[in-house]
Amino acid sequence: xxxxxxxxxxxxxxxxxxxxxxxxxxxxxxxxxxxxxxxxxxxxxxxxxxxxxxxxxxxxxxxxxxxxxxxxxxxxxxxxxxxxxxxxxxxxxxxxxxxxxxxxxxxxxxxxxxxxxxxxxxxxxxxxxxxxxxxxxxxxxxxxxxxxxxxxxxxxxxxxxxxxxxxxxxxxxxxxxxxxxxxxxxxxxxxxxxxxxxxxxxxxxxxxxxxxxxxxxxxxxxxxxxxxxxxxxxxxxxxxxxxxxxxxxxxxxxxxxxxxxxxxxxxxxxxxxxxxxxxxxxxxxxxxxxxxxxxxxxxxxxxxxxxxxxxxxxxxxxxxxxxxxxxxxxxxxxxxxxxxxxxxxxxxxxxxxxxxxxxxxxxxxxxxxxxxxxxxxxxxxxxxxxxxxxxxxxxxxxx
Length: 399
Ligand code: HGY
Ligand code: MN
Ligand code: MN
Known about the structure:
This protein is 32% helix and 23% strand. The protein is α+β, with helices and mostly antiparallel strands. β3 (65-71), α3 and β4 form a beta-alpha-beta unit. α2 (24-39) runs parallel beside α3 (84-99), α3 packs across α11 (380-395) and α7 (229-245) runs antiparallel to α8 (282-302). One manganese (II) ion is lined by residues 75, 82, 117, 346, 372. Residues 116-117, 124, 346-347 line the site of (2S)-amino(hydroxy)ethanoic acid (HGY).
């Protein structure tokens, strides 16, 4: 808990927590995590894309690894457990192994992924995609709000993007991936359970939509002559909500919107907003995304607004491996807790790592299911149960 508090202090937001990819705050947080990994008996380093990677050798050097971890970046004005709890808990498990001088028939790697949230560059899972070898080099040209590309930001950070292909893990090097993470939802609290085993991670489709109308004087242009981009966007936002409300296995969000030129007395000429549609069912998500396209096109045609829809990212629903879920469930029951399986509405690095290894996730109850918000909170007792289950899973892991 103290380590999550310590990481929360590395923030660009006075009085709150915002830590984005390749920021000075992420360097400071990475330094702290490197130190904790080394104290726990691991070889620890920053990899070419800025992941913090710790390795604890098995009974012999060079054995394939059970990969653990989570992400170290945060959303804006975030909570302090989303991501961080998984990294800190995994390090603690290795620390207990090392203190007992225990070496397992496999190595253990703990990864603090550099960019799972995608806040700075809009594209997510950069660290885990690099590890999985699925990061298209073109993505490195993506620019942040200040116009800096990922490649430039990496070089500024002292990293060389040329070495990113070298960090790809070969499938034989990774026995499995297991991530402890807060639930970010209300189920465990409703079920009065401290932990739960994830069955699958919902897929997501992310879009960037740009509407171009005509800026003009707010006082002189009659309403029937306007091409107001923000009024059109408002209709689009409600369309996303309506499409997503149509099926209980769907969620849809417009999380970010910007109107330009952004003056009180100017009709907005251009608007850009994001769309995030998710579902455990890929066919449902794809159908909803197609309906969003159709509706937005109809609205813009009716209003004589130019439209550009850019696909940002799409990930299919990612099932956790039954053989890993079973081992997690055994470890949960060994703590005297009923083992409940539940889906993850939130995305996680396991979606990317799944390309090279089977994945499993252990959820820890969080208060009111609140997350991506400073009120995100867990109890010390639930954190303890989560770490104990993770430790038991690692200690008895059979590949
Ligand atoms: O957006 C998500 O689901 C995750 O928190 N990045
Ligand atoms: Mn998150
Ligand atoms: Mn997360």
